Every structure is written in structure tokens, then in C-alpha cells.
Amino acid sequence: MKRIFVLSMLISILVAGCTKQDSTDRCAGTNYDIQFTKNPAIGGVNNGSLSIFYPRGDTLRYQLNNGAPQANPNFSGLAPGTYLIWVINQKGCSDTISTTIEAYGPKYAAVKQLIAGYCGPCHLNGGASGGKNLDTDASIVSSWDRIRLRCVNGTPTFMPQNGQLTTVDKQKITDWVNAGHRISD
Ligand code: HEC
């Protein structure tokens, strides 16, 4: 009796084992909460970059679009465009996430950089002092006139609140506005 029980256990384990190796199920449940940082391509040069910081591991490989899988989770020299990021494990199972490498013009890149340097925490990382959050490119572009008025003209008062920008940084905003205040300028 006991022997039959053990035998049937063995058979069911074997059957379960076979089911798991079914090609359609083999990679089921391969889900990664892929997290990454990225930088745009600036000034018409293919200098965008992308770095996957989760998941990381010796057995994982990383791939962009149809490129070669690599152990290094950092990619540089990227052209602007849409990329599918692949994280592939040692079983050959993978998960993906899509992202875009933006094309910034040099004047916009300079403004974006000064905002990152001066406007946090009040307007960055979710901060919205005066109802103004500047985390996204779209929010910066649509706020171009307010950014110029507050940071260059000081109307009604200067931003940042605790001290004006340098003359050089004010000029960066003026140059971007005069060029057309787009991401591509
Ligand atoms: C220390 C916090 C702080 C920093 C840093 C700061 N701001 Fe502000 N900002 C405020 C506060 C508070 C308000 C709301 C009161 C006001 O409008 O004066 C505001 C309002 C604004 C507004 C919306 C009001 C309007 O006139 O449209 C804009 C745009 C703005 N800031 C731009 C900027 C920019 C650009 C920077 C960086 C160069 C910056 N601020 C840096 C605190 C800050």
C-alpha cells in the first residue's frame, strides 16, 4: 500500500515536472520590475545613455532592441528613439520594458540642467510650489514664459526664491526662449 502511494507520488512529480518543461510554460512568471535611468541624446549626436539598476545580477544579461545581450547593464552612444529593454536570466527567460531616448537641442539641455541645479526641491521630484512642477520636459516647455518672467525678468519676484540665477544662467534661458523654446532647440 505504502509502496503504491510512493509510486503514484513519483509519477505525479514526474508529470508535473514535464508540464513545467512545456515550452509555452517554461518562462511563465518571469516578471521583473525593471528600473533604469536614462539620459537624452544632445545636439544631434548619438550620445544618449541608459543604465538598468534593477534587477542586477551575475547571471542576468541585458539587451536593447535586437542588439547583442551583454552582462553590462549600462548602454551609451545611443541615438534618439524608442528602445525595448530586455532583462534575460540564465534560463533564457526574459522580461521587457519600453522607453524613449529623447533628442534634446543644446539650448534646451542647458536650461534643463540649470533647472535640475536650482529649482529643487520646490519644483522637482513631485514638488509643486506655486502649483508648478517641472519634472517633465512637457511641463518645462509649457512653462517657458513663466520661467523667463520669474528667473530672467524677476516679475513679480525672482526665482529661485532664495537668490537669483547668475547672469550666465539667465542668458541660457533667454537663448532657449529666443530659439523657439522647444525641446529640440
Ligand atoms: C526654495 C523653493 C523654491 C525654489 C528653489 C524655486 N522656487 Fe519657484 N516657487 C517657489 C514658491 C514658494 C512659489 C509660489 C510663490 C510665488 O509664485 O512666488 C514658486 C512659484 C514658481 C512659479 C509659478 C508661479 C508663476 O509665476 O508662474 C514658477 C514658474 C517658478 N516658481 C519657477 C522656478 C524656477 C524655474 C526655479 C529654478 C530656477 C524655481 N522656481 C526655484 C519656490 C521655489
Structural write-up:
The chain has 185 residues and is α+β, with helices and mostly antiparallel strands. It has two domains: 35-103, Immunoglobulin-like; 106-179, no CATH class. Helix content is 33%, strand content 22%. The chain has helices at residues 2-20, 106-118, 137-142, 144-153, 167-179, and strands at residues 35-39, 41-42, 48-54, 61-64, 74-78, 81-88, 94-101, 103-104. It has a three-stranded antiparallel β-sheet with strand order 1-3-5, with no helix packed on it. Strands 4-6-7 form a three-stranded antiparallel β-sheet, with no helix packed on it. The protein has a two-stranded parallel sheet with strand order 2-8. Helix 2 packs across helix 5 (167-179) and helix 4 runs antiparallel to helix 5 (167-179). The termini are far apart. Bound molecules: heme C.
Question: How many domains in all?
Answer: 2
Number of helices: 5
Could you list the spans in which at least 5 consecutive residues all have pLDDT below 50? Answer: 4-20
Binned, the helix content reads: 25-40%
Radius of gyration using CA atoms only: 25 Å
Strand portion, in percent?
Answer: 15-25%
User: Can you tell me the overall shape?
Assistant: elongated
Overall structural class, as computed from helix and strand content, comes to alpha+beta
Distance between the termini: 81 Å
Neighbour order of strands in the largest sheet: 1-3-5
How many beta-strand elements? 8
Biggest sheet, in brief? Answer: 3 strands, antiparallel
Bound molecules: heme C
**What is the average per-residue confidence, as pLDDT, rounded to a whole number?**
90
Sketch the topology as an H/E string, one letter per element.
Answer: HEEEEEEEEHHHH
